[in-house]
Amino acid sequence: MTIDDLDARLIALLAAEPRLGVLECSRRLGVARGTVQARLDRLMDRGVITGFGPDVSPAALGYGVTAFVTMEIRQVAGHDPVADRLAAIPEVLEVHTITGDSDLLCRVVARTNADLQRVIDLIVDVRGVLRTNSIIALDTPVPYRVLPLVADVPRREGRRS
């Protein structure tokens, strides 16, 4: 699914100010309220916009350590059973299946380095996990972002609204 310039501007506006209503978005974008609502509905139906929830900082909740853990798993039943068990660990924020020497990559948080050991022990205890490797993140100079992609789509597609 591609987006046009109006979609990109709408997404950027809501990313900057997620509490804006449809009417205020229409006013700021200079288009009809119905246009904004239709665009939002379409973007949500197609899975471009996946939510409007607040972004929460794990560090502000006391989880100051972020680490990435790769895993080799026993693949008899596939990735899903292991991923389901990992999802039961609150400190596991994301699980990705990956290529290469490992099978899964997790982003995890912990309160301290000692607490990270507890989290890794929970991961290792998951049935199907054979081996882990962890890397502690020291800083996040480029945090998770998608707005550069959103802004780039209309340009790359050569279209406007």
Keywords:
Lrp/AsnC family transcriptional regulator, alpha+beta, transcription, transcription regulation, elongated, WH_DNA-bd_sf, four-stranded antiparallel β-sheet, 4 strands, about 160 residues
Question: How does the helix and strand content classify structurally?
Answer: alpha+beta
Q: How far from one another are the termini?
A: 15 Å
Order of H and E elements: HHHEHEEHEH
**How many strands in all?**
4
Q: Tell me roughly what share of residues is in helical segments.
A: 25-40%
Residue windows where pLDDT falls under 50 for at least 5 positions: none
Taking the sheet with the most strands, its summary is: 4 strands, antiparallel
The gyration radius over C-alpha positions equals 20 Å
